[in-house]
Amino acid sequence: MNVLVINCGSSSLKFQFIETEDQRVLVRGLCERIGIDGSAFEYKKETGDKKASKIEMKDHNDAVAVVLSMLTDKEDGVIDDLAKIDAVGHRVVHGGEKFKEAVLINDEVIKEIEEVSDLAPLHNPAALLGIRACMDQMGNIPQVGVFDTAFHQTMEPESYLYAIPYDYYEKYKIRRYGFHGTSHEYVANRAAQILGKDISTLKIIVCHIGNGASMSAVKYGKCIDTSMGFTPLAGLVMGTRSGDIDPAIITYLMKKENMTADEVVSMLNKQSGVLGLSGVSSDYRDVIDAEKNGDQKAKKAMDVFILRIVKYIGAYMAELDGVDAVAFTAGAGENSVSIRERIGEKLGFLGVTLDKEKNKAARGVEGFIGGDDDKVKLMVIPTNEEYAIAEQTVSLLKR
Ligand code: ADP
């Protein structure tokens, strides 16, 4: 099937047009600065042909029109008719407690996504703009919502409740939701395939280490815990996000620095993590380079970053009551030989022996990076969220 995968931000729209049987990305592209002066469109086809142009897009409706007209363009397009698009899969960040799996979008679903928008005020409204634009312009072509939170909905209350008055959970739905779910699910399933075992027999820890980073504990195919929380600020130390901190720091800083609550939270989201600690960059590569040049703050930043991941591995191993595989994915998880090495060196307690050669070889490709005889398998599995969205879209429609 041909699935158009759409991922909308407040001023951007990323897309991939995927032929799912052969996992071919026929074309991928990006609309940027939607609604802002200087909006631009670029795409790259499977053939390698690419184009970038300035096109005025005053809203997401315009952006969808630009994408659809490119797909069907006589010269540049990849299909001759919109009807060749079998479905659209939309990435939606927050599905609240309502959406536990992908869903066919209709007016009722739109209302429900709107209702949980309060929980992701920057993301869900953007997704809705893309959904509405596609519904308006694509007739009866099925539109499917795939939620970042859905995979984590199998968590039990013991994992998702915060120990604050229960009323706040009932009144405001304050709880752990977790994010990156599409990636965690894809990687856990892929790990099982690579291991040649049924996922219903496996305990897997997935480390999604990108600029945003999260981990999950997956027991017999179901997520039982994850490191992000009510928002994507919790858990691991990230490029610019603090991850877990003592919440009392917030009011302390508000008083000391005369900051508003929003200013502190913005600082925790945008100026913290390895950027905040090192003062160098939010990109781990830059921080590692600075560390190599003797920058002590950069070293401390990376040490804190690594230790947090190791702590979560230990915690999840306890929760899972053992572990069969630890899988690394996303920007740094897939590509950073040194980050994986530093984590691997601290996993001796698991009986894991990091194989330096294999670790070097597994740069952006699937592979095992531990010793052949290790009971716990260390793996690298590049994530593919767009393909996972297309796959979920197809499997929903085939039901
Ligand atoms: P996100 O989707 O959260 O923006 P990605 O999964 O695309 O993140 O990861 C991007 C991040 O991955 C970059 O910020 C960079 O720090 C990190 N990264 C990519 N390659 C490497 C590498 N070789 N070494 C260290 N970090 C890397």
Structure commentary:
- The protein has 399 residues and is an alpha/beta fold.
- The mean pLDDT is 97.
- It folds into two domains: 146 residues, Nucleotidyltransferase, domain 5; 184 residues, ATPase, nucleotide binding domain (Nucleotidyltransferase, domain 5).
- It is 39% helix and 19% strand.
- The site of adenosine-5'-diphosphate (ADP) has 13 residues, from helix 10 and helix 12.
Structure, briefly:
This protein has helices at 60-71, 107-115, 124-137, 157-160, 166-172, 181-195, 248-257, 261-270, 273-278, 284-292, 296-320, 330-335, 337-345, 356-361, 385-398; strands spanning 2-8, 13-19, 24-32, 40-45, 50-54, 87-92, 103-104, 143-147, 203-209, 213-219, 222-226, 325-329, 367-368, 377-380.
* Distance N to C terminus: 14 Å
Cα Rg: 21 Å
Q: What is the fourth-level CATH superfamily of the largest domain?
A: ATPase, nucleotide binding domain
Tell me the strand percentage band: 15-25%
Question: Layout of SSEs?
Answer:
Elements: E1 2-8, E2 13-19, E3 24-32, E4 40-45, E5 50-54, H1 60-71, E6 87-92, E7 103-104, H2 107-115, H3 124-137, E8 143-147, H4 157-160, H5 166-172, H6 181-195, E9 203-209, E10 213-219, E11 222-226, H7 248-257, H8 261-270, H9 273-278, H10 284-292, H11 296-320, E12 325-329, H12 330-335, H13 337-345, H14 356-361, E13 367-368, E14 377-380, H15 385-398
Parallel strand pairs: 1-6, 6-8, 9-12, 12-14
Antiparallel strand pairs: 1-2, 2-3, 3-4, 4-5, 7-8, 9-10, 10-11, 13-14
Helix pairs in contact: 1-3, 7-8, 10-11
Bound molecules: adenosine-5'-diphosphate.
